[in-house]
């Protein structure tokens, strides 16, 4: 499958792409961790360290941009959760996406960063590419290939991109602390503009909707075409030592190559090795089974089996 991608704009130094004829857009960036919407996101001083995030990231007196206030303005007084709220004594932390059937002072009207995998987008992706709060997304950590469905639930500053909730980071195997977690690079975001209904959604809905949208655009095959680093690593054998052994088996054979991590077996022709040890990504030690003639030694992994070649041949003597 080809990736006929076209750059639509840049946010900072990050290119935002679309495939010709499709509305989904995608980009690769880092991930800062957002605590907004979590009942325990921010706590008043002098115990502000109890919050999941630094209080300074919610503003300061007279300029509260990350906390709900009594007048709905930045210069208002912060709302503190009461005894009937999820986190008494903590501030109410909002997300841009909210349940409008609830009061703005209700912490349950916002998208909880600790429970819901969500992404944060800057304003220019709303105005230029049509992304709306409540739209769905698929996010992939290219370092470990872990994937999570997500929802667009918060708006970040103009010119900055690459941010997700605590729950999203956890799903992707990324350190999830808003204070000292996150990653500088390697996260792929695929966003489906116009796919939501402007309301918060539960995890089951997010997962189902985003999966369907991803499949409609071509699934992982299409994403891998645009980001080849996501394609499974197929093992390759470059040498074996020794290249011959007893027909009775029992010989220790060292196989070198690449892509051996996660190997489940080593084939000597149609028969698997008596035992194997995956020494590292580039070496496996195997004990040959009984056999005859000359056979190809292949590495078997969940991603596939190594192709046969002249360098992998083992001769039974």
Topology summary:
Blueprint: E1 5-11, E2 14-19, E3 25-34, E4 59-60, E5 63-64, E6 118-121, H1 123-129, E7 136-141, E8 146-155, E9 163-165, H2 166-171, E10 183-192, H3 203-216, H4 219-226, E11 236-241, E12 244-245, E13 252-258, E14 265-268, E15 271-272, E16 275-280, E17 283-287, E18 294-301, E19 304-305, E20 313-316
Parallel strand pairs: 3-9, 6-8, 12-20
Antiparallel strand pairs: 1-2, 2-3, 3-10, 4-5, 7-8, 7-10, 11-13, 13-17, 14-15, 14-18, 16-17, 18-19, 18-20
Descriptors for this entry?
eight-stranded mixed beta sheet; 2 domains; Barwin-like endoglucanases; 317 residues; single chain; six-stranded mixed beta sheet; elongated; mainly beta
Structure in a nutshell:
This protein has helices at about 125-130, 165-170, 205-215, 220-225, and strands at about 5-10, 15-20, 25-35, 60, 65, 120, 135-140, 145-155, 165, 185-190, 235-240, 245, 250-260, 265-270, 270, 275-280, 285, 295-300, 305, 315.
Overview of the structural elements:
The chain has 317 residues and is mainly beta. It has 2 domains: 5-35 and 113-230, Barwin-like endoglucanases (Beta Barrel); 236-316, Immunoglobulins (Immunoglobulin-like, Sandwich). Helices cover 11% and strands 33% of the residues. The strands form 4 sheets. Strands 1, 2, 3, 6, 7, 8, 9 and 10 form an 8-stranded mixed beta sheet that branches. Strands 12, 14, 15, 18, 19 and 20 form a 6-stranded mixed beta sheet that branches. Strands 11-13-17-16 form a 4-stranded antiparallel beta sheet, with no helix packed on it. Strand 18 and strand 19 form a beta hairpin.
